[in-house]
Design brief:
Length: 202
């Protein structure tokens, strides 16, 4: 069984969804309930995955480890298809994720409400432009990663939920919204949400 350290509604949710897609058992632990989490991950971020005596950090590195270890259809074994899949995952994690991260930074570090709102709007415009990239890719396929949900789709869907926490309007195209809705309805996604809710209430 894997152990996954998470934060509710954070990007660690995607790791849990992928674990369920791979039919792997996982124990999830809220990092806020760990007395000295920096002993597990010095930078303090989630996800952190423990596999027996191995501790893995960084979201996409963890996903690649899992997808290489367990048989699946989300990550091709070789060739240009594999390269494209990794590129899609990195777009989600290294481009879209930091764009949303600016909203969290603004909320935590700016006190002047007028300046804060202006900064929120600028950040939201940058996020909108990235979702337009997703919309363009969806012109030729049902999901960002192809004809079926990929790890990139799962990552993007997790991030798409964050905008509701801020006083901005982030626009998803019609095809993007359809993709997000489809991923959120996946049994693995619903199971992960329910697990986080259960542990938060415990």
């Amino acid at each position: 069984m894997y152990t996954l350290y998470y934060l509710p509604n954070a990007c660690s949710l995607a790791t849990q969804v992928v674990l369920h897609e791979l039919n792997q058992e996982v124990e999830i632990i809220d990092k806020q309930k760990v007395e000295n989490f920096t002993a597990i991950n010095p930078v303090g971020s989630v996800p952190v995955l423990v596999d027996n005596n191995r501790t893995l950090r960084e979201g996409v590195a963890i996903l690649l480890y899992l997808l290489d270890k367990h048989q699946n259809t989300m990550l091709p074994v070789t060739g240009t298809a594999r390269e494209q899949t990794i590129q899609d995952m990195m777009f989600a994690n290294a481009t879209m994720h930091p764009a949303y991260g600016r909203l969290f930074f603004i909320a935590q570090n700016l006190s002047d409400e007028k300046i804060k709102q202006s900064a929120f709007e600028v950040a939201a415009q940058a996020i909108d432009s990235l979702w337009q990239v997703v919309e363009q890719q969806l012109e030729k396929q049902k999901f960002f990663g192809g004809d079926q949900p990929s790890a990139a789709d799962i990552l993007l869907t997790v991030y798409s939920r964050w905008g509701a926490s801020f006083p901005v309007d982030i626009e998803l195209g019609a095809k993007t919204q359809k993709m997000v809705d489809a991923v959120m309805l996946m049994p693995s996604f619903q199971r992960a949400l329910a697990a986080e809710e259960y542990h938060s209430a415990a």
